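Re: [ENG-882] Designed sequences occasionally contain unexpected residues at chain ends

Forwarding the minimal case from QA. Structure tokens:
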């Protein structure tokens, strides 16, 4: 499968990031840290409430040539970040998908930035968004137009909230072609109506299909 195991680290005790041994797929790099004066959850909550924290995180990831897909703050001080490669960007290792090396590069840089910005965390996990990556921004819908998408709406439509279909249009509003048996229907909707949207995983070892242009179905 074309997926990447997450790269996990702990904040180093000395305040400087140690390289340690290079982790492979499914492995984790860990370092101990000093016991904080407050709980990790409270410390992270305080740091994350600062106005510029997310801006610093996003600019750091983008500056390295990646897209910040998702950020999760989980119990016990775990900060989970998912990244993706950007179309057209040249990377040291040629691959359509995020590699372990990509995750390691971002992890090390974020450790340095978080130390400077005084962001407290217990564990940092950087990973690929997976085959079922979420669509959160308008540009995500543009990028993956022509692929199958699972969409869950905030309010029910025709008695249900979740639909799976081919995304054939992103602008001026998304359009999903949903097949039900031998019939199909087109659903036009605003992004504000969407609770969650994810790519439908395709496990064929051929990589992602090439998205069609807006308004055209893929052949």
């Amino acid at each position: 499968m074309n997926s990447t195991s997450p790269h996990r680290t702990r904040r180093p005790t000395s305040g400087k990031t140690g390289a340690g041994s290079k982790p492979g797929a499914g492995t984790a790099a860990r370092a101990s840290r000093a016991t904080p004066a407050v709980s990790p959850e409270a410390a992270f909550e305080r740091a994350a409430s600062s106005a510029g924290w997310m801006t610093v995180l996003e600019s750091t990831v983008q500056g390295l040539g990646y897209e910040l897909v998702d950020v999760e703050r989980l119990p016990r001080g775990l900060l989970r970040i998912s990244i993706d490669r950007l179309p057209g960007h040249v990377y040291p290792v040629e691959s359509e998908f995020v590699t372990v090396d990509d995750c390691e590069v971002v992890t090390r840089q974020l450790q340095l930035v978080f130390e400077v910005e005084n962001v407290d965390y217990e564990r940092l996990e950087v990973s690929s968004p997976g085959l079922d990556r979420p669509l959160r921004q308008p540009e995500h819908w543009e990028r993956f137009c022509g692929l199958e998408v699972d969409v869950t709406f905030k309010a029910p439509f025709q008695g249900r909230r979740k639909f799976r279909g081919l995304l054939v249009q992103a602008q001026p509003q998304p359009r999903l072609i949903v097949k039900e048996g031998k019939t199909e229907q087109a659903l036009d909707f605003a992004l504000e109506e969407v609770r969650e949207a994810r790519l439908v995983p395709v496990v064929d070892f051929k990589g992602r299909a090439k998205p069609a242009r807006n308004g055209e179905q893929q052949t």
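QA comment: On inspection the terminal residues look reasonable. The chain has two domains: 7-127, 131-219. Proposing we downgrade this to a documentation issue.
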